[in-house]
Amino acid sequence: MSLDGRRSPRPFDDGGHVIFVGGQGPVVDRAAAALTRHAPDVDGETTDADGALESLASADCLLASSDLGEWTRVAFVEAVRTRHPTLPVVVVADGPGDVDALLAAGATDVVDSDASEALLTARLRNALARRTAGDGATGADETLAELKQRALDDANLGVVIAEATEDTPTVFANEGFGRLTGYDPSSFVGRNCRVLQGPATEAAPVAAIRDALSTERPVSVVLRNYRQDGTAFWNEVDLEPVTDADGAVTHYLGFQRGVTERVALERELESARESLHGLYAVTTDASLSLSERIERTLALACERLDVSLGFVTRIADDTQRIVHAVGDHPLLQPGEACPLSKSYCRRTLDTEGLLAVVHAAADGDWENDPGYELFGLECYLGGKVRVDDDLYGTLCFADTEPRDEPFTASQTAFVELLTRWVSYELERKRREQELRAATRRFRALFDNPRTFAGVLDPDGTLREANNAARSTLDDPSVALDEPFWEAPWWTPDPGAVETVRTAVDTAAAGEVAPFECAYSHREGSGTVSGAIYPVYGDPDDSVSADRPVVATTGDTADGSDIVSLMVVGSDTTRRTEQAAQLRRQRDRLEEFASVVSHDLRSPLEVARGRLHLYETAGGDEHIRQAMASIDRMSTLIDDLLDLARQGDTVSDPVSTRVTDVAHRAWGTVATAAAGLSVDLDPAFTVDADPSRLRQLFENLFRNAVEHGSPSDGERPLTVRLVGLDDGRRGFAVEDDGVGIAAEDRGHVFDRGFTTNDEGTGFGLAIVARVVEAHGWAVTVTESATGGARFEVVCGP
Fold first, then answer.
1. Cys-Cys crosslink for 158: which of 177, 407, 448, 593, Cβ 3.0 to 4.6 Å?
2. Alpha-carbon torsion 344, 347, 351, 356, what sign?
3. 100-123, pLDDT tens digit by residue?
4. Paired sense of beta strands 249-258 and 309-316, if any
5. Has this prediction a pTM greater than 0.70?
């Protein structure tokens, strides 16, 4: 594009006449070469100062070298201006000291004596462009041209035109560029805008500009630049390529705007957004305790405010105590305390809103302040924390170093938000503590293991039941959210259903309803006595075992609604169970007495008779028979004691590897030539009493060896421990011996049953008692080899 929206010719394309003043020299030679190469339509001549003054009318531009004969360069420029006020004059300076004097005399531009060909080309082109514009402007056109120039100079942005050559030298810069960067616009001609870059200029926008120049396309970036005095500013740069009539890019038009405040605001907003996002993440993290959330919030705010200290205080009895803190200040750690009169917080309490301090040492108001002398905090931002409208303490952020700038509005708003959040969280913590205390008192009643308790809706729907009540059902969930009278406790007995329904209706009408009826539970049935109480309160209150309310049991004089029903009861069959337990103990005693009176009497009589024969006739055979009878009595007594011990239910089972117990049991049994084969997964476990499980295996192994071994002795017995292959959970002990006759299998677990004259008949009875104590099941069948197979089912 062109500067005015149309395609425009290059300034040299209109031709022109340049006079080189002062004779030949390096500068003149480079300038002449530049004109020859880039502007063949521009002619040039060389003359001395006097000749140049005589030829001003024919000149479009003068290039004055440092050799002007008797003329000084300042005097020559003043003479030109006297004769031709608008003729462009470019002067070669020997050093920076000449620049101000030459420009003051009226020089259009000044170049160094070592100026490159590119720089000379740019300066001459710029000068000829001005001359060409001036020659064509008269009357209204001149006014328009001046207006355009004023508009460019007064524009609140920098406008730069750079040549599309290798170094892209500047050929024009407006006054707005000077105000933005601090550089003199005319002196900046010939320089590349990269001089505005500095140590903190980001690489990405610079690379974007470089890429746009190499591909001759527009670009817009924001980057950190530096003014001539070294101060940094944020610069929004828009570059647009300028083309000639043939579409070739000849220049770049640049617009530069100072956007430091905008960038600061954007970064402040981004910082606020990130802080709020982080605050949300911390404050809603249910896995953190309140102390952890407060301390992480303090750390987050310290980063947001660019300070190193954050703390929450508790103020009571004119004492400030630190309860939460981040940072390494030794006096601002949790547990540290000081008199309120020596703290910063005393001023916070007297301030409406937040107390903000930017630089305490520079603020005379803090001189000799006891808080400043004790803590040495240079900057501070703090506010009051209230709980239930009562002063709790303060939330503060500080640093021992002063701030360069005051706290921003968004930073103070962030701290105000935090004071409200901390106040809210502390209020909620207080409410939770009060609720927990009430809940503990209620739970002590509701979860009494000796009492059944439940919460009903006014219509009788069961919403909650305590553990004592739930534990009586195989599946407690079937009773919840259903009418109380349809719960599994009552449904087996129509009379119980009617009793409970009547009690619910009575309680829903506002009266305490006692009841007593039969009930069913997972172990059978029993009798329960209880009462249903109406609970009054606000209809909006929710009632549960975790949200206790005050229940009343009389008339509601205040007209409150019944919001819930409470049912409380106890099992009155306990005495029956105790009686049953006593009966079981009595039966075991009777069983013990029966064995003592019957099973032990026979071997005892044999021993007595043999000893009598020995006394009268002598003979070792009688002694051996007597000893055998005594050994049998010993065995009977041991088995009898084992049998008696197995009557108790296993109350504290532990996970036990079955194969480990089986191997230990095999090692304690006299197995003769028999062998054990274990085909059960070593990882298979059951919940059991390990010592009683071992006794089970010992008796099964002993039974196999003593009763299952082949009588011919031609092959040794093999006992196998295997898993159940039909999906049931358990194990089997089988052998390849003689097996158990079908007609005997129904009696093998009876006490005293044996097919061996030397057996006691207690071994498999003990196995049955162990199985029963664990809640398992045991059956006997035939193994694949015709031997005995005992299957123990430990679960579904």
1. 177
2. negative
3. 788 888 888 888 877 777 777 777
4. unpaired
5. no
